[in-house]
Amino acid sequence: MIATAAVTTLLACQRQPQKSAELWLGGDVNLGDGGKAQLQNIDGMVQGAAGIVNLEGPATERLPGKDQLRLWNAPSALAELSAIKIRVAGITNNHAGDAGPGGPEQTARYLRDRGILPAGGPAGAAFFQLNGISVAVTAHDLTQGAPQNLESDLAMARRKSEVLISTFHVTGPPSYLPRPELRRAVEIAYHAGANVIAAHGTHILGPVERREHAVIAWGLGNLAFSCNCTEEEDAMLLRVVVEHDKAVRAEISPLQAGINNKPAQQAGDASAIFDLLEAIGRKNLERQRNRAYF
Q1: Is the pLDDT of residue 120 over 60?
Q2: Which of 3, 131, 235, 279 has its Cβ near the most Cβ atoms within 10 Å?
Q3: How far apart are CA 239 and CA 47, in angstroms?
Q4: Strand intervals (E) in the chain
Q5: HSE-up of 165 (CA within 13 Å, CB side)?
Q6: Rg from Cα positions in the chain
Q7: pTM
Q8: β-bridge pairing 196-200 and 246-256
């Protein structure tokens, strides 16, 4: 009887489906005092999945004009991130200090008030549960190169989660080829056990690839930018389905970024983006109209 019960319990456990969760990642977001127009189409594209973006610049009231470029996001505009189901916003980038040294802490507070987890800088890693899976999201700025504490930061986050998502902000001239500091950081993240690795910051697309337990997007481009300081419209959303310690599905959706007061929307010619991605990296994407799997 005991043996029979044990076998029955074992078979029942084997029949339990593997838990999975779906997320999406977008690139750089700068809201200024608005954002609704630029982001209005995103929720329909991601169909309620939890989102992760980089918030370029601090959350603060309008900054006084100065000679140098400084970015900002009105606290009231953060509601637009909540509306498209942003779960985590990275707050470490080359514009994080544009409102002064206290800007990152203030931005973290404003985001938490909106139910959005900040990641990076003084906020550290963001931790949350999604469909029964524990997820950690890290954000690091590579403006000064890969941080000395990068490996230890990622190891800590990995120990506390079933899935690790590692994001990097890169400063430099637009290039389809990943910069040396990004290559180094991605290798550190991969060997630390990251399951999803994504970069942004140069405002341009980069290659995509899959390695065993991980998917890598070397450049997501812009998502929405209110500052009239970038012209790069080619972008993409990365959607992933994750299980314990692995990414089981990865999908890219080409975008026309929401810049110059235009809404972000599906790219007019997705095949051209797929051709580009195959030319600079991933070969033989599995294309299905406006999306592709890898």
Answers
A1: yes
A2: 235
A3: 11
A4: 21-30, 50-55, 86-90, 117-119, 126-130, 133-141, 163-169, 196-200, 208-211, 214-217, 222-225, 234-243, 246-256, 258-259, 265-266, 286-288, 291-293
A5: 34
A6: 19
A7: 0.92
A8: unpaired
Q: How many CA atoms lie within 13 A of 57 on its CB side?
A: 26
CA distance 36 to 6: 56
Strand partners, 240: 23, 250
Q: Tokens at residue 182, please?
A: 């990004």
**Largest pairwise CA distance in the chain:** 81
Amino acid at 215: V
Backbone angles phi, psi at 277, to 5 degrees: -65, -35
Tokens of 25: 């990642």
CA–CA separation, 146 and 132 (whole Å): 32
Given this model, what pLDDT does residue 284 score?
Answer: 87
Domains for the chain: give ranges and CATH numbers: 19-293 (3.60.21.10)
- Inter-residue contact 186 to 201 (CB < 8 Å): no
Compute the distance between CA of residue 195 and CA of residue 25 in angstroms, rounded to an integer.
Answer: 13
Distance CA 14, CA 187 (A): 35
